[in-house]
Amino acid sequence: MELKGQKAAREPQSERPGADLVLDTVGFYCPVPIIKTSAQIREMMPGQVLEVLSDDRVILVDMPAWCRSAGHDYVGHVEEEGEIHLFVRKVGRNASGAVREKIEE
Amino acid sequence: MKKERSGSIKAVGLISGGLDSTLAARVLMEQGIEVHGLNYATGFCSNAQRRAVERPGEAPHRLRNEALRAGADLGIEVEIVPVEKEFFSLVTHPKFGHGANMNPCIDCRIFMLKKAKGQMDALGACFVFTGEVLGQRPMSQHLSALQTIEREAGLEGLLLRPLSARHLPETIPEKRGWVDRARLLGVCGRSRRGQMALAEILGIAEFPQPSGGCCSLTDETFSRRLRDVLAHQVPFEPGTGDSVLLKVGRHFRVSHEVKVVVGRDEAENVFLARHLAGKWWFEVSDAGSPLVLVQGDPDPPLRRFIAGITARYSSQKGEREVEVVATRDGTREHLHVAPLTDEALEPHRI
């Protein structure tokens, strides 16, 4: 069984998944692609898929890790003409149960 | 003082992905604390610079972002926050001074913790934590430094260091019973035996080996080159290729306005080749040659000098005369020069 967000990152998919939005991070150094992905995903609706373009091969390790950390689905990647296209599906998150104690002096 | 409380307690913590910050997060999570990780991208991460130079055969997992990996393993979100420009002004003018090199460790901690305090407030978290260990680092982790950092960051009583908490004054989270002090640790000093033992107990197997720091500002050569950049008012933007360039190649200051970077291997040549637009670059044709990138606008005599440097590091360094090609955009010059001697070159090395 494959756990959410833990799809093997190194093997490109044979078919390109559909995407709702494309984010081009080609030429940017780590961690900028992840920062941009995080900001873009925040603006999207749950269920939508973001396609991230990168030429940083280590993003194949970092993007699945970020998805696991942030709770989104890592759909997979394809490689085309030296660029990596990664696909991330936004997962709706429950509102945090954490409430800060209010301290009254 | 009165408190109202509902739901779980939330904390924000600085997560580097190293063993200490990972353990600190886990120790709190074991107590039911909801943890949100923060990682500030300063533009001086050695790992980011190693990634930019793609050396063949270097396993991608060795270059991964450890904070993200730790977040994934811990099952918590680690938010990477870009702070490069703001952080750079602190590097050049640190209130508490530099360490052995350009590392402003105390100011850096204060800066990040002030940011974390803002995040704590924004996220409705109760306190901030770090993986700092009393006595582990000479500049920023002795008792008075820890207290200064906490005070300057405006986090008095709200900064918990779970690994060394038993050696430190009780914090508000402990006093209020949000965190059980008895289940926090009393680690101190440079030995990592206690952390390694705890990692085994908690089943934490994945963490980077301590390597003496992942911040380029603690590196002597990088710091020397950064000082050179500042002294010669070279445009510098941290977090971009500018930072990486200070790590790559051999550097020579040939005049106040002109510096050259000599690629040391194919991977560095490939990296330098991405930065040629609008710049002079030199190489020896049809021979083993470094790519020599020039910052600044050298006049003809200086171009001959740079050609001599290029010849010195080529496979033809033993020849009396070497043909070096100097290129800038559409312009090409063929220069016939003798390879420079080490004696002539050494005073220019940065």
What would you say this structure looks like, in words?
The complex is a heterodimer of chains A (105) and B (350). Chain A is 22% helix and 27% strand. The N terminus and C terminus of chain A are likely disordered. Chain A has a four-stranded mixed sheet, covered by helices on one side. Chain A has a domain of 68 residues: Translation Initiation Factor IF3 (2-Layer Sandwich), CATH 3.30.110. With 105 residues, chain A is of the alpha+beta class. The N terminus of chain B is likely disordered. In chain B, strand 9 and strand 10 form a beta hairpin. Chain B folds into two domains: 206 residues, Rossmann fold; 101 residues, no CATH class. The longest helix of chain B has 19 residues. Chain B has 350 residues and is α/β, with parallel strands linked by helices. Chain B starts with a strand and ends in a 5-residue tail after the last helix. In chain B, helix 5 crosses helix 6. A six-stranded antiparallel sheet of chain B has the order 7-8-10-9-11-12. Chain B has a five-stranded parallel sheet with strand order 4-3-2-5-6, with helices on both faces. At the A-B interface, helix 1, helix 2 and strand 5 of A face strand 1, strand 3, helix 2, helix 3 and strand 4 of B. Strand 5 of chain A pairs antiparallel with strand 1 of chain B, so a sheet runs across the interface.
What's the CATH class label of the largest domain in chain B?
Alpha Beta
Strand numbers in spatial order across the main sheet of chain A: 1-2-4-3
Query: If helices are DSSP runs of H or I spanning 4 or more residues, what is the number of helices of chain B?
Result: 13
Average pLDDT rating of chain B:
90
* N→C terminal distance of chain A: 53 Å
Oligomeric description of these chains: heterodimer
**CATH topology tier name of the largest domain in chain B:** Rossmann fold
CATH topology of the domain at 22-89 in chain A, by name, is: Translation Initiation Factor IF3
* Termini Cα gap of chain B: 58 Å
CATH homologous superfamily of the domain at 22-89 in chain A?
Answer: TusA-like domain
For the largest beta-sheet of chain A, the strand count, sense and barrel status come to: 4 strands, mixed
Number of H/I helices of chain A: 2
User: Which protein chains make the most extensive interface, counting residues with beta carbons within 8 Å of the other chain's beta carbons?
Assistant: A-B, 31 and 47 residues
Tell me the Rg of chain B in angstroms. 25 Å
Provide the β-strand percentage band of chain A: 25-35%
* CATH architecture label of the largest domain in chain B: 3-Layer(aba) Sandwich
Q: What proportion strand of chain B?
A: 15-25%
Which stretches of chain A of 5+ consecutive residues score pLDDT under 50? 1-8, 94-105
Domains of chain B (count):
2
